[in-house]
Amino acid sequence: MTQYVVLSAILFTIGCIGVLTRRNAIVVFMCIELMLNAGNLALVAFAKQHGNLDGQIAAFFVMVVAAAEVVIGLAIIMTIFRTRRSASVDDASLLKY
Amino acid sequence: MRASAEGAGRVPVVHPIGAEGAFSWLWLIIALPLAGAVVLLVGGALARGALDRVGHWIGTGTVVGSFLVSLWLFISLLGRGEDERQIGQHLFTWFEVGELNVGMDLLYDPLSALFLLLITGVGSLIHVYSIGYMEHDVRRRRFFGYLNLFIAAMLVLVLGANYLVVFLGWEGVGLASYLLIGFWQHKHSAAAAAKKAFVINRVGDIGLSLAIALMFTTFGTTDFATISEQASGASQTTLNALGLLLLLGACGKSAQVPLQAWLLDAMEGPTPVSALIHAATMVTAGVYLVVRSNFIYELTPVAQTVVVIVATVTLLWGAILGCAKDDIKKALAGSTMSQIGYMMLAAGLGVAGYPFAIFHLLTHGFFKANMFLGAGSVMHGMNDDVDMRHYGGLRSFMPITFLTFAMGYLAIIGFPGFSGFFSKDKIIETALADNLVVGLCALLGAGITGFYMTRLMLMTFFGEKRWAKDVHPHESPSVMTVPLIVLAALSVLGGIMLLNDFIVDFLSPVTGVAEHHEPPLPAIVITMIVVGVVALGVAAAWFLVGRKEIARDAPQDVSFATRAARADLYGDAINDSLVVGPGRSMTTGLASFDRRGVDGVVEGGSAGVGAMSGVLRRVQNGFVRSYALSLLGGALLVVLALLAVNLA
Question: How far apart are CA B409 and CA B528, in angstroms?
């Protein structure tokens, strides 16, 4: 049980660091997926421990939302890449003060 | 005598009976001049040409009509018994709010009867005179409209049966006075004088309006009838406050020290205005108020003492001003101030003095209106020059003006047999019986009156000609001299009102019957002393003014006393340093506090917020990763907070 939660925490941390440090939008995106799935893992693990389905259902919801997010996110990244010839998140910084 | 049965020395309760017969026409006295004012002032827009031609006849006719009604009612009043000489007329309910019910009520009693005759009688004569005096003024119609407005307001003042109606008239005469002082508003000095009179009068009006408010809270009404009945039940503090507040109002309207500074400047108005408003009628409103409020003053010796002090100071103050002025109208205005001081003094002396205050008020109304109109006639002949140093030797060129003026002169100095002799003598006698110091001051005032009036006569009508080159003095037209003759006759004969103590008995239903006080000296001795002192004043004027050459320009190397009197005894300087100066520095202080303090806080605050948001907005830097970091930081904070709460 503990191992699952520790693994989940490690995965989430990796995802977090990836989001904060990497510039490539695709990699950032993958890191976000990693964080989401770390969350899923924790949910499923707790569901198993408590012996009910609540956590598993929540994990399904997360997957559905993640899938929808990927569709829109990748489309946005594609469009930005087409116009700016770059996938770096730091380059797309026009919306500011 | 009814009042004497109730006990001497007390004032009777006001108890009007319903108006019937002739007295049901009481309202007409006010309505006539009011209608005239409305037609002349509002109608001018509709029929300018026609009204400009006949406007002065409308204005004069309404006042004469009002005089005839007053005379009719006066005769009817004489025909009634003393118990039936207070007549009330309820016209309509003015307003009704909760407990307050203020009616437009009129009260016709011996006091208001005499005032009605004075106002409409002298008013009619001055209207007639104005037809000639204002003949060449393009705005003559408007002038008569204002005069009618004044007469109507003054009649409301003396006919009101409660203080609120009196206040309506009080403000009305203030307005009319303002309009008429500033009638030649193209002259800067006239406009400034009008404003000064209005502002100083406002100070007095605060006193009257506060007194009315205090009456509402104390008695729940301002009716004379109720207050005169219940006044003795009020606390002494309330009565003292009422007396002093009413006195403040009276000081403003009657130009008593310390609110005296406006009267001399008010001479900027046309001369008939000075005669009607600033000599014969309006300035006596303060005396009327004190006499009318006798049921309050009789209960508050403190306020009565203050009235006497104010009056004594004023009668000397005005007399001193009159000695130094070279402007004929200003010299007469100083004399007016002084004579009103005499009336106020008599009014402050209580039951014994009230009838003589009114008596002197009436005789003064005659002879002062006479002299002001005479001064107007002189100015008319001298190209509107008012400086007496430019007159001299006019007696043979203006015989009628000279003779009528001389009647007024003899009346005011108190020459035996003339009206002023009786009225002033009675006041001095009463004052001496009451308080020796006050009596001696009044006696001194009589001497100074003799001096300054003789000086005025000598400088104007006697001595060498000191005219400007292009002046050709001539007698005024008869439309101006006839009113002068009538007023001169009244100045001579006004004393018959005292015959058989008529005026004292006639006024007793209002003012009560005095306890008999033995004067310190026999009356005849006092009279002889008064005449002697006046003769001294006249002789002094003869030696100081009459026998010397009078310079055309006022000499500048004069004593301190003369300089002080020429500067109105520094009345304006006192006002400036005590009120105007501090007021001005307070407003500049407030304005700069508003600019620096209030605006500083508001503008500084907004500038601070602006600067801070300028710094904060740098956070919005467009880098997604920094947003992510703050998101993470926030999430961590939330988690830590949850942990802290759960573990604590």
Answer: 19
Tokens 């009356």 locate to B523
Torsion of CA A15, A17, A18, A19, to 10 degrees: 90
Cα separation, B85 vs B110, in Å, equals 7
| A19: chain B residues, CB-CB within 8 Å | 625, 628
Both tokens assigned to B83: 């118990």
Phi, psi for residue B387 in degrees, rounded to 5: -80, 115
Which of B620, B629, B632 lies at the smallest CB-CB distance from A97? B620
Helix (H, G, I), strand (E, B) or coil at B17: strand
Give the rounded distance of the alpha carbon of B455 from its chain centre. 26
Q: Measuring CA to CA, which residue among B403, B410, B353 is closest to residue B377?
A: B403
Residue B557, SS3?
A: coil
Identity at B204, one-letter amino acid code:
G
**Token pair of B245 as six digits:** 């507040």
**Which of B624, B629, B630 would you mutate first to test chain A, the one with the most A CBs within 10 A?**
B624
Chain B residues within 8 A of A94 when measuring between CB atoms? 622
Contacts of B92-96 with CB under 8 Å at 24 or more apart are B94/B164, B94/B165
What pairs with residue B96 in β-bridges?
B101
Give the whole-angstrom CA distance, residue B119 versus residue B102: 26
Question: Is a pLDDT exceeding 80 seen at residue B161?
Answer: yes
Mutual angle of helices B163-181 and B285-292, in 10-degree steps: 170
Min Cα separation B619/chain A (Å): 8
d(CA B16, CA B90): 11
Distance CA B370, CA B63 (A): 18
Q: Which residues lie below 8 Å from residue A46, measured CB to CB, with a gap of 6+? A: A55
Q: What is the layout of strands, in order, in the sheet containing B87-97?
A: B17-18, B87-97, B100-108
Give me the residues of B, 607-626, that contact A with CB < 8 A: 617-618, 620-625
Please determine, for residue B577, whether its predicted confidence score (pLDDT) is greater than 90: no
Residue A19, min C-alpha distance to chain B (Å): 7
pLDDT at residue B525 tops 60? yes
| C-alpha distances out from residue B87 to B17, B93, B155, B510, Å | 5, 18, 16, 12
CA angle B260, B263, B266 (to 5 degrees): 150
Mean pLDDT along residues B6-32 = 81
Query: How far is B142 from B184, CA to CA, in rounded Å?
Result: 12
β-partners of residue B88 are B18, B107
DSSP letter for each residue of A8-23: HHHHHHHHHHHHHH--
Q: How far apart are CA B135 and CA B138, in angstroms?
A: 8
User: Tokens 């009604």 map to which residue?
Assistant: B69
Average pLDDT of chain B is 89
Q: Give the separation between CA A8 and CA A2, rounded to whole angstroms.
A: 10
How far apart (Å, rounded) are the C-alpha atoms in residues A60 and A57? 5
Taking chain B, what is the end-to-end CA distance rounded to the nearest angstrom? Answer: 100
Q: What are phi and psi of B95, to 5 degrees?
A: -155, 160
Residue with tokens 């009647």: B407
Q: Say what the pLDDT of residue B8 is.
A: 54
Give A96→chain B minimum CA distance, Å.
5
Of A16, A94, A97, the CB nearest to B618: A97
Q: Which of A23-27, A93-97, B45-49 holds the top average pLDDT?
A: A23-27
Q: Provide the residue count of chain B.
A: 648
Give percent of chain B with pLDDT exceeding 90.
Answer: 62
DSSP label at B578? Answer: I
A58 Cα to chain B: minimum distance (Å): 20
Distance, CA of B495 to chain centre: 24
Q: What is the mean pLDDT of residues B336-345?
A: 95
B636 in reach of chain A (CB within 8 A):
no
